[in-house]
């Protein structure tokens, strides 16, 4: 069984916080490609930013996520991805109409159970790296909620609870598989 586990879902829903909690418990974690790209582009004055050139941003996100996938630890333990290749590919495919999602999903599979953070307006915050509003986050969530089952993944929506409870929930679900 594939040990690469995706944590996906709504922007601002607590994915990065959950990843940090799982890392504190000793699990390897891969940070969200999009946020790393935004940080790098802002640092170097680049334009591959979602609010300047969405297509360039998504193409960079696909490349970064592919590299993350190929370089992730393969030691049999759970490795958690804050977003991943399929999130970026789904967004790029929707934007460009290019059929990038299916080929990537078959060559870079993840664990069959994908965890989605639901929309959670009470904790959503914009910041210099997340400039879109809740409406854009909801659209993104709906796309992911629709895409993952079409690719053969089972979606598990995370409960709106403390990060510790969420981490326990994820690990319990994975142990049951």
Automatic annotation (TrEMBL):
InterPro entries associated with the record: NadR/Ttd14_AAA_dom, P-loop_NTPase
Residue stretches spanning the membrane: none
Domain NadR/Ttd14 AAA: start-end pairs: 5-166
Alphabetical list of Pfam families matching this protein: AAA_28 (PF13521)
Protein's name in the database: ATPase
